[in-house]
Design goal:
2 copies of one chain form a homodimer. Chain A is an alpha/beta fold. In chain A, about 45% of the residues lie in helices and about 15% in strands. In chain A, strands 3-2-1-4-11-10-5-6-9-7-8 form an 11-stranded mixed beta sheet, with helices on both faces.
């Protein structure tokens, strides 16, 4: 791996790898369920494999089809173990149904993490089904009520990204869930963005203390009180405009609001980008300008390209699962794989588990209002 | 008025104005409560006055201060009636307290609409206080449970904008409220965006029918059933990415989600715009490119400038109230005034009242599941 989207992360990872003597990481990849089919998934892992010699893969899906796709890529020779699984979870399938089916590529991919064969799982499939299946196969960490999906969001902060959670694991969250999101989000920011004391904000419709829903007012007190044990600084209520801002590093919200905000932000960035392209095609002069500014515009595009931050991380489980966009292309799949690799190499899952366990122990000892 | 942000609206307005022989419109303006103080408000009305000879104003706030500011603007001579009111509603004041105070510029501005002196009210003040005061002074339309704030959102649609509501009147909305939002939003889109049969979408975390909160599933049926009487086409569930898209014209959601989405979209657009500016300053070549592309970039900036669509309209009251951004500059204030003028000139408030009344009557006659 020669580059990193996350400043400060890469040296740490390299250092750890060096100490382990170039330890290999095996990722378990659900080849099915993405909107573009398994060929895109295989193209994505090939791209990652060419950049990172420490990566190996277990690939889950219809054996013959996957075998043909993998054989076409020389870089994947001897680095992919194919598991022949016939079933595919459809995008419109109910999570409660999907999680009961034993023959799916999704379940097989998760089980490889459960059985210790792989360090993390990556899937482009149905989010609800992936979370439901992860919960019954991997199980939740002790002390966690609702696992969450955390995403990275381009921001004005020096680290270039903010963490937001939950962005869609569950449409509900009470004050105790929000407290757990603050703890988990801070841990992710500390390990993933290399911030010693991440600043946490609670998303609301106004920054005044009397505003917002009842559970937000209750959560405000819980999160403020647990800042010491969570290793974060609590900045209070924030608004939607602060999500890409530099006021906080971690945005805590319920999965309904977080999902709407994530998709609204992506849609708006894409709209502005498309309007920009139109503007540069408007006149002959602007077309020349676009040529002159090509490098700068490409830098801008890279900075706001949602594919670069593709990958929602499931937090609160006994194992790492990365959810890639259903519509991800090979670049997007490769970004999700990179994220899964970085989290595996840094031992994030074990660190988060230890942090949650110590919070639970502390709550039992000193009677603070943290959930058990 | 010589230009219009809303295609198709201006001719209709002109036509109506022509038939009325250049009827004057009087707007009631709360001079206080904006982040930038009364000088910015007066600068905004002066800008509007210079563009539109049919506009007159009643200005509410401390008499001496306002008198000095108005005297400096020749264009405002004989067009502004100042009401000396000492009290100002603070941004952090609780709505329940603010609405009880009789001496505020906000209440005085609303009362001028109530008393028929002005056709619409514009305020940059505390949103919650403005809504609470509007509700007790103007009262709700019969058949409306929760009034809503509707905003215009730049979109890929031919009309250039979509309508979203509620963006912050109330943090709660049950299925009947959401139905009323659909009816009111469709009426706004029909009158404000000149769409015969607006397409309405219900904001959710997924487009599959089983996803989302219970009230959203219930609202889906209610809104679908009322499409005939509401004069809209119901497109079902939509996601955050569809807000600036061309799939629907009207986005229905609760005021918590809508407010977060609005501010997230604004924040993201601003982030991309700032990154773009940085990109053009990166190299000497890109600086030359920026000069060449200046006209195109200005066109882009105008297209995504949130000040151009400044103004949330309160729907469901016996009178028109436009809420401008608290941080609006003179351009933003002027945009809110323009919106208030257009709604007044088109008789939108009366049309919406008639639509709601006929929906109530129909529900009583044929026993559909609409609220009484």
């Amino acid at each position: 791996m020669t580059d990193s989207d996350v400043p400060g992360r890469i040296d740490e990872t390299k250092g750890r790898l060096g100490a382990r003597g170039g330890l290999q990481v095996t990722l378990s990849i659900d080849a099915m369920g993405g909107d573009r089919g398994p060929a895109t998934i295989v193209a994505g892992i090939a791209r990652s494999a060419s950049k990172n010699p420490h990566l190996n893969f277990i690939l889950h899906g219809p054996g013959d089809e996957l075998d043909k796709l993998v054989r076409k890529r020389k870089i994947l020779k001897d680095r992919v173990d194919i598991r022949d699984v016939p079933g595919v979870v459809r995008m419109d399938e109910k999570p409660s149904q999907a999680m009961r089916r034993a023959d799916t590529s999704m379940r097989s991919a998760i089980d490889a993490v459960k059985d210790g064969e792989a360090q993390a799982c990556v899937s482009c499939g149905n989010t609800g089904a992936l979370m439901a299946t992860s919960m019954i196969r991997l199980r939740k960490l002790d002390g966690i009520n609702r696992p969450a999906i955390a995403c990275l969001w381009p921001s004005r902060n020096p680290q270039g990204f903010n963490v937001m959670l939950d962005v869609g694991a569950d449409i509900r969250a009470d004050e105790r869930d929000l407290l757990q999101y603050a703890m988990m989000g801070a841990s992710y920011a500390r390990n993933g963005l290399n911030l010693n004391v991440p600043r946490v904000g609670l998303l609301n419709v106004g920054t005044e203390e009397h505003k917002g829903r009842a559970e937000l007012k209750a959560a405000q007190d819980l999160i403020a009180n647990a800042s010491g044990i969570g290793g974060y600084e609590f900045m209070g209520f924030i608004e939607g405009g602060d999500i890409p801002g530099d006021k906080v590093d971690v945005i805590v919200t319920d999965g309904f609001t977080g999902n709407v905000a994530l998709k609204t932000g992506e849609g708006t960035a894409k709209l502005v980008g498309d309007f920009l392209k139109e503007a540069f095609k408007a006149t002959p002069l602007s077309r020349i300008a676009a040529l002159l500014a090509l490098t700068s515009l490409k830098r801008l595009q890279k900075r706001i390209d949602p594919r670069r931050v593709n990958g929602g991380v499931f937090l609160g489980l006994r194992g790492t699962v990365v959810k890639s966009h259903g519509s991800a292309d090979a670049t997007g799949v490769s970004a999700a794989i990179k994220l899964a690799y970085e989290l595996s190499a840094s031992g994030f899952s074990e660190r988060l588990a230890a942090r949650v366990a110590s919070a639970v122990a502390s709550a039992q000892n000193d009677g603070t209002s943290q959930p058990k």
